[in-house]
Amino acid sequence: MSSSGNGKAPTGGSLDLAALVIQAHGGIDRWNKVSHIEISLNLTGSALEWKGYPTRLQPTCHVNVRDAKVVFQGLVSGKQDDKWIYTPKRAWIERRDGTVLASRDNPYANFLEHTLTTPWDDLDLTCFAGYALYNYLTFPFHLLEPGFEYREVDLHEENDETWRVLEVTFPDHHLAHSKVQLFYFDEDLMLRRVDYAPTAFKAPASHYCFDVKDVSGLKIPTLRRVVSRIPSEPMVNGVHALRGRTKLAGPTVFMLDYIRVIVHDEESETSVGVGV
């Protein structure tokens, strides 16, 4: 089964996994009312150290879900008043008065020659955190955009559970960790895992999702853990790995722990948030 995003609900009957997942996460009608999402989070993991940053960051973020613009504050300690701004075409850092401190056009292209341990500058961090968070908060609804292709593939067994799997091919204009990714869903159609190999790291990873909260009618995982994936070894179980019951192939690459999430609607200009 395959389909493409076209701005409307995926079709194909009751067995269309993409349509079922979109409905389970809040539905198209609810999503179409959203203008932007604000979150505060803890961002930790060994990848930050590899790239030359402290292993714990605590930014606040404003994500415009319509034009893929993400604005961070407090992304790096000691620069609380600066804004770190990502769009697909440009990343920049500016002071409170609007003075631009650094800027880069087409920032994602900087990752093409990067490897796992290539140091980042502040614009690299802005770009990576920006496109990643945008994708996390707009999934699965961005599957409706033109150019997306997806198909359901073989079932996956993990943690004594059976998960349905959607293989998604991203269009070139939509920046993401990798062009092809696998998304895993439990019996409630909640996202449990994503497999990809980020362009910025050139290494495969499995990204586990936990603690789904209902935030103003949207189902949002509020804890995400990324671990290294070694194809020749058994897959790390996300739940057990999180609880320390399974020996990991490597350290936690990234962990995102959402402290607060606020969803803003377009028409009513109201917001509903949840502390998590």
Short description:
This protein has 276 residues and is mostly beta strands.
**Biggest sheet features:** 16 strands, antiparallel
Please estimate the helix content.
10-25%
Strand content: 35-45%
Assign an overall shape.
Answer: globular
The count of domains is: 1
Low-confidence stretches: 1-15, 232-249
- By DSSP, the count of extended strands is 16
Instruction: Write out the CATH superfamily name.
Output: Lipoprotein localisation LolA/LolB/LppX
* CATH architecture verdict: Clam
Can you identify the CATH class? Mainly Beta
CA radius of gyration is 18 Å
Question: How is this structure best described in words?
Answer:
The protein is mainly beta. It has one domain: outer membrane lipoprotein receptor (LolB), chain A (Clam), CATH 2.50.20. It has five helices and 16 strands. It has a 16-stranded antiparallel sheet that branches. A hairpin with a 2-residue loop joins strand 6 and strand 7. The chain is globular. About 35% of the residues are buried. The N terminus is likely disordered.
Search tags:
16 strands; mainly beta; single chain; 14% helix; 276 residues; outer membrane lipoprotein receptor (LolB), chain A
List the helices and strands and how they pair.
Elements lengths: L1 E3 L12 H8 L3 H4 L2 E11 L1 H5 L5 E2 L2 E5 L4 E5 L9 E5 L2 E5 L5 E6 L16 H17 L10 E10 L2 E9 L10 E6 L5 E6 L8 E11 L2 E11 L9 H5 L9 E14 L5 E5 L1
